[in-house]
Amino acid sequence: MSKRKRARKKYTAPKGSMRAKGDIVEEIAASMHRMSGVAVERNVFLPAVDGSGREREIDVLISSNVSGYPVHVAVECKNQKEPIEVGDIGEFADKLKDVGIPVQHGIYISTSKYRSGAILRAKGIGIRTFLLEETTPESLSESVQQAFQSLIYLLLTVTKIQVVNNVDRTEGDWQMLIFRDKTNRICGSVPDLVWQEWLSNKVPKELGSHTLDLTIPDDWVQVVDGETVQVLGARAETQITGHIVTLTGSVRHQMLVDASSQRVERSQLKAEFNISSGKYPVTTFSNEEDLEEFIRAREGIHISVGRFRLPRIRLGALYWPPSESTARKVSRLMQDFTEGKIPDPRPLSLAEIEGTDMRTLWKSIWKEYPFNKKPC
Which end of the chain is least crowded, N or C, by CB within 10 Å? Predict the structure, then answer.
């Protein structure tokens, strides 16, 4: 079949006009027939087979291949108050004959009713007739009036670190957390190993507590009080929390009902979300049970987009590895304390150091941070 798609002249059809109403039905009809292996096009102009040069517009053209042979189905879409008459079916049949599409491959979709004669005429020549019915949110039951789209961001928080070596030191000694290279330069830390495990997907996505046995690179060493010590192992206790951003939307239920048998042929449920720029409230959960209860409590259709690991981990009052602004803030606080300008600011608070905006987690890592600059 020779065909070409010639777009209508672009302009914004007046709201409520016949063109605007027709466009809505065409889009719904097209969306209901899109599937793998099938091409669905709107407003395709096909040349008449008589060679006259005339073109006829097909509202929705569905094309596929069966055993290597092309098959085309044409859909006529009407959105009007008046019932579909016998003449309307005849005009559509003439259009199909003009462009060489078998009449039996024609589908007529209307938002208004059909005259009994129109249904009989269509059935007699093989055209299928459908009513497009739409259930609006106002007429839906309360349980499906709204849709909820949730994005779950996962944050790993280090709650405890244990390092085993051959010296008698306390776990709180900062020297027990730092590793050096063969030139005695700091090149990493225990939190860095946890962060690497997190980014490499070696930590499960389930909310709750997780214990990580960390693998220390062979060329990493510890120096305690000037002496190189043997590290026998390292372990981290962690807590994964879920931080949920929920977007609300409205639901539209659309059905193609056979005009003759009144049987529902196709049905689709569409949820539309208004995604605008700005801040969204975040709900935090520490275990799977509370998360599931939160989702079940929302009356409506729930769509979970997925679980996404946040790019940093939390270590006390810091997101790790630190950003430059965080490193400078902590350094300034400790310097002011050392110089006696302020009382001891410890323990530091996350809200004071990192703030309450989770976008902070996407800040660039401090360029001078040893592990970021030159890993061992």
Answer: N
